[in-house]
Amino acid sequence: MASTDPTTMRSVLGHFPSGVTIVTGAVDGVPAGFTCQSFSSLSLDPPLVLILPGRGSSSWPKIEATGRFCVNVLAEDQQELSTTFAHSGTDKFAGVEWRTSPLGSPILAGATAWIDCTLYACHDGGDHLIVIGAVHDLAAEPETPPLVFHRGAYGL
Q1: Is residue 70 within 8 Å of 63, Cβ to Cβ?
Q2: Contact present, 84 and 78 (Cβ < 8 Å)
Q3: Distance CA 122, CA 104 (A)
Q4: Of 8, 39, 6, 9, whose CA–CA distance to 22 is shortest?
Q5: pLDDT, position 7
């Protein structure tokens, strides 16, 4: 494998705009979650999605242990929520309105979409994990624009 400078790679790949999600779960009734930019639809039959949590995430191992998670696609006005859930060691859910998904994970109020999943597979992905979720339920607010991240900043 060729050696590529991580700073250059981040800069170049930042030219591809992405949505912003918060992956949530509940561990013994206590909500957990983290901001996850790396999300994609994987398959329609069977319905599968893909998330790529960082290996250093303190929230993902808790969520993974439950075998289920919810991907919350953030709305354009949820930049502050994205920043809050990107940091470790804080009560990320303090003051955050949410309801429980059919599988028991938090659905964040105001999200433009949510996808409720069970853990289908998890693979090595370098400094990230490649997590595949089997979709059990999902919904969207078609009139609510998504939060977009592009070239290292939030924007349209």
Answers
A1: no
A2: no
A3: 20
A4: 39
A5: 86
pLDDT interval class at 97 (50, 70, 90): very high
106: preceding bond cis by omega (within 30 degrees): no
- Other CB atoms within a 10 A radius of the CB of residue 69 amount to 31
The long-range contacts involving 87-93, CB below 8 angstroms and separated by at least 24 positions, are 88/57, 88/58, 88/59, 89/58, 92/32, 92/33, 92/34, 93/31, 93/33
The β-bridge partners of 131 are: 51, 122
pTM for the structure as a whole = 0.92
Q: What distances in angstroms separate CA 150 from CA 11, 45, 128, one per listed residue?
A: 10, 30, 20
Alpha carbon of 26 to those of 33, 70, 82, 151: distances in Å? 9, 10, 18, 32
3-state helix, strand, coil in the chain (%, to 5): 15, 45, 40
Euclidean distance between CA atoms 137 and 99, whole angstroms: 14
